[in-house]
Amino acid sequence: MVLFEPNHKVVTWQKRSFIAFTDILPQISIVQPARYTWIMKDLAQANIGKFADPALTAKGEDRASVALNNPETLWFNTGTLCNIECLNCYIASSPSNDALVYITADEVQDYLNQIKDRNWPIKEIAFTGGEPFMNPQMIEITRASLEAGYQVLILTNAMRPMMRKSVQNGLLELNTNYPGKLTLRISVDHYDPALHDAERGAGAFAKTVVGMDWLQKNGFRMAVAGRSVFGHSEADSRAGYAAFYAEHGYEIDANNSGMTVLFPEMDETIEVPEITTACWEILNKSPDSIMCSSSRMVVKRKGAEKPAVLTCTLLPYEAEFELGTTLEAAEKDVALNHPHCAKFCVLGGASCSA
Ligand code: SF4
Ligand code: SF4
């Protein structure tokens, strides 16, 4: 399996046996790339002989693929730099990891133009990082996406980068000029400050609450990304988030899975089945329900001349899932040739849009 080698230091890694889903990806926290090889070794042991051939499974059956039938969301990774360094960040963001560099407003504008040229029925432009508000052109980028007529979703930790005066002023202007079009999805790993801080560092919860208070006070539409790593039932988690929102006066629906998104954790070392073309009928599932039938993600790799379009937000370092530099190139079908495809998307039903 070919991997991109991100150029960053080895970050703290708590040796857990699961892959954590978090704010970035929009949804899935894969692993810190410096540890990718280690995880892939476990993966290889769990799935020996599998996920090798894009066309055929280990048993020689036709591998399932997904066509881009309804591109509704175009994601941009704004860059992997982040103001903090969480324990289980899917993309190993930190104050020094620039494996994915800041995408520029001109580059985003080029893809917005391509959407029109290709007649993609995009409804939403979504941004993930790193921390998107670390990107110095984030307000300009957001403005371009709103001007083009799209809903905009920004995943953020709502901490210091978002709270800088220039960013606040930009957000206020955009929320006034494009009412109801902008949503900020805040990462709140757990409504208990101690559990949130265990992942994100001491004092992180309090700083995020300051940011959320500011967003609420100024009439921004907020969503929350939480995690299910803590072992609660979904009902208990949603009740906990509801109490947290009520305590702070946040207008966020804890029972709406698009507004309070609870990302599952995934055991990377467990064997997963490969998905064949016969699985759709067996599982009574349509390929059109899989995330890569309705979205793509643009990233800019350090040292690359141009941004690249990936199949989805879940596999930012897998060469096989990089489709080319243009939206036209990204229209090809995606072979479900990774354990995430099976475990997370087909069997788990992952989706990241609001
Ligand atoms: S806040 Fe930064 S380090 Fe933490 S999960 Fe989000 S992007 Fe990763
Ligand atoms: S992990 Fe696989 S199935 Fe899921 S969205 Fe990405 S490419 Fe598609």
Could you give a quick summary of the protein structure above?
It is built from 10 helices and 13 strands. By secondary structure, the chain is of the alpha/beta class. Helix 3 links the parallel strand 4 and strand 5.
Give structural notes.
By secondary structure, this protein is of the alpha/beta class. The protein is 29% helix and 15% strand. It is built from 10 helices and 13 strands. A 9-stranded mixed sheet has the order 8-7-6-5-4-3-10-11-12, covered by helices on one side. Helix 2 runs parallel beside helix 3 (138-147) and helix 3 (138-147) packs parallel to helix 5 (165-177). It is globular, with a radius of gyration of 19 Å. One iron/sulfur cluster binds next to loops.
Outline the fold blueprint.
Elements: E1 18-19, H1 36-46, E2 65-66, E3 73-77, H2 105-118, E4 124-128, H3 138-147, E5 151-156, H4 160-163, H5 165-177, E6 182-187, H6 193-200, H7 204-217, E7 221-227, H8 234-248, E8 260-263, E9 266-267, H9 279-283, E10 295-299, E11 308-310, E12 322-324, E13 334-335, H10 339-346
Parallel strand pairs: 3-4, 3-10, 4-5, 5-6, 6-7, 7-8
Antiparallel strand pairs: 1-9, 2-13, 10-11, 11-12
Helix pairs in contact: 2-3, 3-5
The chain binds iron/sulfur cluster (2 copies).
